[in-house]
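#struct-help
A.M.: can someone run this one for me? Single chain, 84 residues.
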Amino acid sequence: MAEPTYKELKARLADLEKQKGTRRTGSLEFRVGEKGGVSVYGLGRFPVTLYYEQWIRLLDVSKDLRDFLEENKSAGKLKLKEQV
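D.P.: on it. Structure tokens below:
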């Protein structure tokens, strides 16, 4: 298979940029990386990546985490993004 030409690459890049603009904002996406970690995209600028055992451990204490967040939210300690 021949290498793509500059013109073909440029056209492909333009198509990819158009697709990027159509992504839903606020949606989360999960991916398994090369090293076996699970990454969550869509929370911020960078993905959050943990291994299976770490995700399970975090999910096991999800109620405690939610309680902690609510406690600190009502105390005014957390920085919250303004709703648009």
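A.M.: thanks! The first strand starts at residue 29 and ends at 32.
D.P.: also worth noting: The two ends are 49 Å apart (CA to CA).
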